[in-house]
Amino acid sequence: MLAWFGAIAIGLSLGLLGSGGSILTVPVLVYLVGEDKKLAIAESLAIVGLIAASGAVPYALRKLVDWRSVLVFGIPGMVGTFMGAFIGGFIPSVVQLLVFAAVMLIASWMMFRPPRLEEGDHKPRKLWKIALDGVAVGVLTGLVGVGGGFLIIPALVLLGGLSMHLAVGTSLLIIAMKSTVGFLEYWRGLSEQGVSMNWDIIVLFGVIGILGSFLGAFVSRFFSQQLLRRSFASFLVVIGAYILYTNVPGAIGGSQQAHSSQAGHATNRP
């Protein structure tokens, strides 16, 4: 039952805030569903990709997707996501969750103090710089399983010179593209280890998330966006702190164990 509420919360937050809600997917899968951490990151990418793709369709039909930015930011983002997912296969899951917690705290700070996104005040950056930004955000997506909309939208407005409407639609499509690449790489790596994806959870969370996002978009008209963002930011701080609390001891213990093992090998050398 808690997992169901978690799935609904993911969709509602996406609809209410427009971005950032998908950052709840990994904690819900780990702490409410009981998934393995690395499997949760992989399935999170599939769920986020499904929700983002469904959200991108209406924007594309209304011609509110900037295809130039999809090529300049999105394609490098896919490369970065593949890199992040590949690297993630060699990093302990506890370390990935610690990075994820740091991302949550950064997202909460950006929601408390969002960047000014007035249109027409920013000159587009050089294409190669925008491409590097796409790679950087993509690596983060692949490494910890977040869509990164809270980073992509400001980047498209401040660096790419897009309007907010174009930035949101373009961001959703880019998130769907990046999430697909990241998921496929995790799926390949986990399959080689004999780990199977829980497709029923992916489909269930994807469908509930999509329906919840529509409901959230409707409900958001009755609340202040500033209040919603600050409330959600406070919630992210609590979740991020809890993830740190539950994973820092394991990371420290693992480091000490590795150090002890190395010391033991050194002592046993002739």
TrEMBL record:
It comes from Deinococcus peraridilitoris (strain DSM 19664 / LMG 22246 / CIP 109416 / KR-200). Pfam families: TauE (PF01925). It is found in: Cell membrane; Membrane. It is a multi-pass membrane protein. GO terms for cellular component: plasma membrane. The chain crosses the membrane at residues 6-33, 40-61, 67-87, 94-112, 132-159, 166-187, 199-220, 227-245. Its main location: membrane. This is Probable membrane transporter protein. Keywords: Cell membrane, Membrane, Transmembrane, Transmembrane helix. Belongs to the 4-toluene sulfonate uptake permease (TSUP) (TC 2.A.102) family.
